[in-house]
Specification:
single chain, TIM Barrel, eight-stranded parallel β-barrel, 8 strands, globular
């Protein structure tokens, strides 16, 4: 997969018009991005449809198309979770909306406490054997859940999960103490989302000022994720103090943030989102950038105790939504 992936949470089918969404996908392809991540719940299926149309005509073998299943996509009891029924129906609907006959990676969007894990893993394994899915991954699972899935798959001879998709950035490092070590032991890589903390690490949010119009903080889908940072004015101020470090490194603030997550050897790819093609082109320049140890140390000094590290902050709903 490409070191930078393109994701369409919030943007496609909701925040931006389809013409702009397609322009962003074209910009991603022009920059050498081949990996595209979506989910059935994004804009209730519309994001998958937009991405499918945007990629139409591209050579399928040259792309990696990912989707996810778990969150509610309808009113019924079986329109959510990781039961066999929902997974099998979910992948069929995702394939139809994306206009493809297989997914490169199909991910459990959260851990489902209402379904036996063996049932979930067997359903995913069946999809791999049928060729509808090539690989299986998870998103926002805790270390012990990842370890349990690996153990059950090995005991039963089922297809193993190959990836974890957590939130990870300079401010949100909750995967470092437990998820990363567990993943390294199991040969699992991280495909991280929100490397720029929903836009906060670009520096566009200023202390004491209202969020810019049209930003993630003003969108219903993204507001909850970024609010945990914006409510702390000290964190917003410290992000501004990263500006001279980015300038010294010859990077934009966004490039510095994306490059930072890629320094973690367990991170396979960073997922970027965009509402404008120029954002894609800017973020893509973080690929291949190496940050020296002194710069990484100074970033830590600037951010100080604004960094969240508690593994318990990775959590799936105790009950199905």
């Amino acid at each position: 997969m490409s070191e930078i992936s393109y994701g369409n949470w919030i943007t496609h089918g909701s925040q931006v018009e389809e013409e702009a969404a397609v322009a962003c996908v074209r910009a991603a392809l022009d920059e050498g991005i081949t990996t595209f991540d979506t989910a059935d719940v994004y804009a209730q299926g519309r994001a998958e449809e937009v991405l499918g149309r945007a990629l139409r005509g591209e050579r399928r073998d040259g792309l990696e198309i990912f989707s996810k299943v778990y969150w509610p996509v309808g009113p019924g009891r079986n329109d959510r979770g990781l039961s066999r029924k929902h997974i099998i129906r979910g992948v069929e609907e995702s394939l139809r909306r994306l206009g493809t006959d297989y997914l490169d990676l199909y991910q459990a969007h959260r851990f489902d406490y209402a379904t036996p894990l063996e049932e979930t893993l067997r359903a995913f394994d069946d999809l791999v054997r049928q060729g509808k899915v090539l690989y299986v991954g998870v998103s926002e699972w805790r270390a012990e859940e990842i370890e349990q899935a690996v153990r059950i798959a090995d005991e039963l001879g089922l297809d193993r999960i190959v990836s974890s998709q957590p939130q990870y950035n300079m401010l949100w490092r909750v995967i470092e103490p437990e998820v990363v070590p567990a993943s390294e032991r199991a040969g699992i890589g991280q495909i991280v989302w929100s490397p720029i903390a929903q836009g906060l690490l670009t520096g566009k949010y200023l202390p004491g000022q209202a969020p810019p119009a049209g930003s993630r903080a003003t969108d219903q889908s993204g507001r909850d994720t970024i609010s945990r940072f914006l409510e702390d004015e000290e964190t917003v101020r410290r992000v501004q103090d990263l500006r001279p470090l980015a300038k010294e490194a010859g990077l934009t603030m966004a490039q510095l943030a994306v490059a930072w997550v890629l320094q973690n050897e367990n991170v396979s790819s960073a997922i970027i989102g965009a509402s404008r093609p120029e954002q894609v082109r800017d973020n893509a320049k973080a690929a291949g950038v190496k940050l020296d140890a002194d710069l990484l140390r100074r970033i830590d000094e600037v951010l100080g105790d604004s960094v969240r590290r508690d593994p318990a902050l990775t959590a799936s709903p105790a009950r199905r939504p």
